[in-house]
Amino acid sequence: MVKLRTDIPTSVVAKVLFASDNTCCVCSDRGRAVQIHHLDENPNNHALENLAVLCLDCHNKTQSSGGFGRKLTRDVVCRFRDEWLIRVSDRRRQIDKLVVERAVGPPMIAKTVIKKVERVQSSSTPPQKELEYINSLPERKTQLLKRAQPEWDSGVTARMVQASYDYIDALSGILSTLASYYPVGHFGNMEPHKFFSEQIAARFTWHRSHVEPEGPGKGGTIVNVICCDNVQADVEKMVEDMVISIIGYDDEFDWRGWPDRWHGKAT
Question: Which pLDDT belongs to residue 188?
């Protein structure tokens, strides 16, 4: 008897996608269209431990066809899923650590900063600790780029892509830190992790979609490199936009020179 498929509850979908960073747990290529796979093949068992996020290609490999055994068994997918969730969790823990290290103080500071954003111009300057962090960002970016450059120069696609993922994750940490200068719940009433995770995932999806005009998977492995390069530029711009919004156009801060330093230009 064929079982009627029931929809996965929206809250469960959100939890599963966020835990997996909207990314296939097997290939871990960001920006691919994904599905939520039921490990036990029971379409009504929506328990978290029974669900895994897979891209369309990897999901097809869980199916048997043409008399051949499936390429991805339940046990294999479970192993990939569990290892991927740990990697995502560890990455976010590192971002949390960065945010704590760069915390700027009690909520009153965030209120002071947001007033500056709303007024665009203000006679008061942001707290000194915040200014020090923002001023350090161009140098921090330079250090991150130096760390990634040998991998990008390697010419090995997997190494190049992983270096880009690490760089983008670091920029995401910066975004989360800057978000702490705003009132709680300011970003769609979402935790910064979730907000920026969704924003960055959307950028990966957009770039992967438009660079594969012949269809998903038709562009080869170079698509991953191209997508990473484009998303890096997007996230760098997000950091720049947030900094300018927080600081405003206050001549007590070098708001003209900071963007040049962020872009690696001599001032």
Answer: 86
> 53 pairs with which residues across the strands?
36
Of the candidates 226, 237, 175, the residue with the CA atom closest to the CA atom of residue 30: 226
Adjacent-strand bridge partners of 55: 34
All residues at 6 or more sequence positions from 158 whose CB lies less than 8 Å from its CB, including other chains:
none
Cα–Cα distance for residue pair 197/192, rounded to 1 Å: 8
What pTM value is reported for the model?
A: 0.79
Give the model's pLDDT for residue 25.
Answer: 95
User: By the 8 A CB rule, do 115 and 250 touch?
Assistant: no
Residue 43 identity? P
Count of beta carbons in the 10 Å neighbourhood of residue 134: 24
Over residues 161-219, the pLDDT tens digits come to 999 999 999 999 899 889 988 888 888 888 888 899 899 999 999 999 999 888 877 77
Task: At 231, give phi and psi (nearest 5°).
Answer: -65, -35
| Phi and psi, residue 197, nearest 5° | -60, -45
Helix (H, G, I), strand (E, B) or coil at 92: helix
Structure confidence at residue 93 (pLDDT): 82
Side-chain-side CA neighbours of residue 209 (13 Å): 8
Query: CA 71 to CA 165: how far, in whole Å?
Result: 27
Q: What one-letter code names the amino acid at 261?
A: R
Average pLDDT score over residue span 237-248: 91
For 172, the token pair is 């995401």
DSSP letter at 68 equals B
Per-residue pLDDT tens for 12-58?
Answer: 999 999 999 999 999 999 999 999 999 998 989 999 999 999 999 99
Chain segment 122-139, per-residue pLDDT in tens? 434 456 677 888 989 999
The Cα 75–Cα 162 span in angstroms is 25
